[in-house]
Amino acid sequence: MPRSAPSFLNHRTAHLAVAVLLPLAVALGTAAPATAAPPATAAPAGASSTAAGKGTPGPITHPDSDHLGSTLGGRSAAGAAARPLVAEPLAPGAGRESTGAPAAALPAGAKPLGIDVAAYEPNVDWAATAAAGASFAYIKATEGTTYTSPTFSSQYNGSAAAGFIRGAYHFALPDRSSGKSQADFFVDHGGTWTADGKTLPPLLDIEYNPYGATCFGLSASAMVAWIQDFGTEVKTRTGRYPSLYTTTDWWRTCTGNSAAVSSYPLFLANYTGTAAPAPNGWTGQSIWQYADAGVFPGDQDVFNGTAADLQAFALGTGPAAPPAPTALSWPLTQQGDSGTRVTVLQHLLNAHGASLTADGQFGPGTRSAVISYQNSAGLGADGVVGPATWQSLTNTVKQGSSGSAVKAAQVGLNAHGASLSVDGQFGSGTRSAAQSYQVAQGLPADGAVLKPTWLALVAS
């Protein structure tokens, strides 16, 4: 299993064919911070060697493909374990709710939604993304001390022009140069901060090494020292300590679960339906990256607070992030069980090729379908639906989707107070019911049904 994300995650292949350095726009209040051309590659000052016997780090071969979460388990593979959902279109002329484009603004009480992008996602329609409900963005600026993103300027300025609160991030390569060196390169090439309420704090992306050893050949103490070196220099240069993007497993593995920098805001990646658990020292995250695809371009992010809290976070005047809510657990479901959860399960199995009657009874036929799916998905084929099987079965459905997985979502939403026709068509009514449920549960209110919403629907 991958370290902090399940094996069913889809890989988003970088599709930037040619990297072209875009000229930087200069527009008061919205322009990307001025940058210079990247320096010629040279032996980095203060670079650390990799672990004993590993030698000097190899060349940086795919920086356009390195982005927030690009090294999480599942993204390095071309496919996903789960088979694709089978679309089940309506018969011609059948009356159903509208499946047009989603409505715009988020409902009252919804937590702000955002995205993060880099050169792998070069053409973002920022106005359409804002209209769909996103309000903040992080954009890759740099990597190591030799790479600047060719799309940073257009993405940074484009998001600002569409009204996004936005910020820049740096993809860390701690085995190649000191934290201070990379911080300086980052700040010099876009990683600045202004107390204007529109600029998020600089972000350090520290995750699994795409070019070698998971922990870059550094000991836990050396890794913590590197992060502190980076953070101190960013604070000196910009007036803000950086936020940290990471996973709990990477943090435990590569820093020894240190709490030394827990005063830095946490941007946590976890695609299992919950943000918990947080690394040592943090009681909750400021931002949660909850999926690598969904309603918006790029990764799907949610801020842990209100819209006013987000602006205060940008200004540097907000309180510490509130504690994360108690984590839900994927339920254990097996032969002999009955009820709505089993009905949801049966529809999900049908979406992956089974032909079950969704009667809410977990009998031998349902168990056989579970075993067949588990075998096809490379899971332990025991006929019991636990966390791994639930997570593999629950693909994303959103407005415009159709089929048995939509029926599963509609059944689950009806069990929590909605009054939907279970017709397998994800139209505006299903979207509205999903958002109402999401707001009530404190979930990302994107109006789609992704892992966080599936988890809440089947766990309660």
From TrEMBL:
Q: Where is this region: Disordered?
A: 36-75
UniProt cross-references to PROSITE patterns, sorted A to Z: GLYCOSYL_HYDROL_F25_2
KW Acyltransferase (keyword) present: no
Q: Which residues form the signal peptide?
A: 1-36
Indicate the transmembrane segments per the record: none
Annotated keywords:
Glycosidase, Hydrolase, Signal
Record domain Peptidoglycan binding-like: where = 338-393, 402-454
User: Biased composition, Low complexity: where in the chain?
Assistant: 36-53
Alphabetized SUPFAM superfamilies for the sequence = (Trans)glycosidases, PGBD-like
Claim: Ligase is one of the keywords in the record? no
InterPro entries in UniProt = GH, Glyco_hydro_25, Glyco_hydro_fam25_subgr, Peptidoglycan-bd-like, PGBD-like_sf, PGBDSf
| Family statement drawn from the similarity comment of this UniProt entry | Belongs to the glycosyl hydrolase 25 family.
Name this polypeptide is given: Peptidoglycan binding-like domain-containing protein
Organism of origin: Kitasatospora terrestris
